[in-house]
Amino acid sequence: MELRAVKPHRETQLRILDAAEELFMQHGFEGTSMRSLTARAGVNLAAVNYHFGSKHALIEAVFRRRLDPMNGERIAALERLEKESGGRALGPRAIIGAFIGASLRMIEDAKGGRNFIRLLGRTYTDPSKQIRALIGGLYAPAMERFKAAFERALPEMPREELIWRMHFMFGTLAYTLAATDTVQLIAGCKPEDRYDARLLEQRLSAFLLAGLTAPLRGAHDVKKAA
Question: For residues 199 and 111, is the Cβ–Cβ distance under 8 A?
């Protein structure tokens, strides 16, 4: 009896999470009412409160469902590479591949994965400090782990410069995932390629590697060029 009861509870949770993910993606966090959410999920408000307690807890659960496994996969990929290297510092291309691979594979999921990626894109411009703090906290362990790997791979790069380049790298990945439709604006591109994780990884890795390892310029040179 207990085992049979667990499955309906889990199915209800998943329906609520799926509905919240889609509605948050379409209308934003403030623009999604609990009434519209319960209607989409086919549940009552009591069920949402029972499983999640509050709207903010539901938002956190939506992000944790995707980000925790994705960041776990990133760290696991990096650790496999480090183990295979026998203690030697990895090259930056390998580190980039470990970082972007898991999120690019999500884009091949035609329903949930793509909804979530678009939701994540909305989040980067969301005015809510609480939401941004939540996302930052979920990413923090993976970002620290990869920063340490990049520091070993690029020991000659000043720490502040590396942080900025990682910021640009993360932003490029986020835009690639969240704004895939814009590729149709560029003549000659195949629209179907925007959901091919393997091709995206090849193209994005080459671009990010060039930016990450570009020659350093002094502050005087940067100001002069500007």
Answer: no
Distance between CA atoms of 143 and 125, rounded to whole angstroms? 20
Q: Which residues contact 29 (CB under 8 A, 6 or more apart)?
A: 55, 59, 126, 128, 131
The domains located in the chain, with CATH, are 1-53 (1.10.10.60), 62-216 (1.10.357.10)
- Provide CB contacts within 8 A for 205, sequence distance 6+: 93, 96, 97, 100
What is the C-alpha to C-alpha distance for residues 132 and 134, in angstroms, rounded to an integer?
5
Residue pLDDT, tens place only, 79-128: 999 999 998 999 999 999 999 998 888 877 766 778 888 888 778 777 68
Cα separation of 218 and 6, whole Å? 61
> Which three-class secondary structure string do you get for 42-56?
CCCHHHHHHHHCCHH
| Residues 131, 7: Cα–Cα separation, whole Å | 30
At residue 66, the 3 state secondary structure works out as: helix
**pTM exceeding the 0.85 threshold for the entire prediction:** no
Q: Is the dihedral of CA 30, 66, 26, 117 positive or negative?
A: positive
Of 165, 62, 198, 40, residue with least CA distance to 120 = 62
